[in-house]
Amino acid sequence: MRQLSAMAMVSGLANAMVLAVINSAAGVGHEALTSFRYVLLFAVTVTIYIRAQSYLMTQSATVVESILNGMRSRFVDLIRRADRLPLDTVGRSAIYAGISGELAAISQATTEIVTASQASIMVVCAIAYLSILSWTAFLITLCVSAIGISIHFQKARERQADIQEIGRAHV
Predict the structure, then answer these.
(1) DSSP secondary structure string, 41-109?
(2) C-beta separation of 16 from 126 below 8 A
(3) Residue 34 and residue 21: Cα distance in Å, rounded?
(4) In the structure, what pLDDT confidence band is assigned to residue 140 with cuts at 50, 70 and 90?
(5) What is the pTM of this model?
(6) Mean pLDDT taken over the chain
(7) In angstroms, rounded to a whole number, what is the distance separating the alpha carbons of residues 91 and 74?
């Protein structure tokens, strides 16, 4: 798990570095040697980003599948050792199907979770870079982000209340 976290950090930093390279290249003259250096630096940082992303996707899928297989094995073992009477009323196949379905949903969400985690790290790195460029822009970004997050959570609470109300109406 530490390797995944470290690689997510590398990926986020590489993404922020791409922004830094572009920003730096835009601020210099068009001297051929300088331009070549920036093109090379850009290519290296993009390569690091792509490699880190590839590693994250493959390794996180492997880790999650391993965890889910362990959970599946524990659940099956618990079902095997459980009292037969209550299980027979529900049906073992229904229980196995339910467990498999839920674990499959978790497995399918892995890519989105890893991508969101990496994007969060990238945003933090980009905002940190922004603080180096302009403290005022950094503070404005923080304020606008705080307002956006506040609105998001308020809307989420409203949606949750609506869902609960609909659930109570159908009961």
Answers:
(1) HHHHHHHHHHHHHHHHHHHHHHHHHHHHHHHHHHHHHHHHHS-HHHHHHH-HHHHHHHHHHHHHHHHHH
(2) yes
(3) 12
(4) very high
(5) 0.58
(6) 83
(7) 18
> For residue 56, what are the contacts with CB-CB under 8 A and spacing of at least 6?
4, 7, 8, 11, 114, 118
DSSP state of 29: -
Give the CA-trace dihedral at 144, 146, 148, 149, to 10 degrees. 160
Token digits of residue 128: 């940190």
CA distance 64 to 104: 11
Report d(CA 72, CA 84) in Å as an integer: 19
The answer to whether 28 and 38 have CB atoms below 8 angstroms apart is: yes
Amino acid at 138: F
How far, in Å, CA of 58 to CA of 7, rounded? 12
- Identify the helix (H) or strand (E) that includes residue 30: none
Residue with tokens 């180096």: 132
Convert the pLDDT of each residue in 111-134 to its tens digit. Answer: 788 778 777 877 887 888 888 888
1, 108 contact by CB (below 8 A) = no
State the Cα–Cα distance between residues 169 and 29, nearest whole angstrom: 67
Angle at 92 between CA 86 and CA 98, to 5 degrees: 110
Q: Which residue has the tokens 């210099």?
A: 28
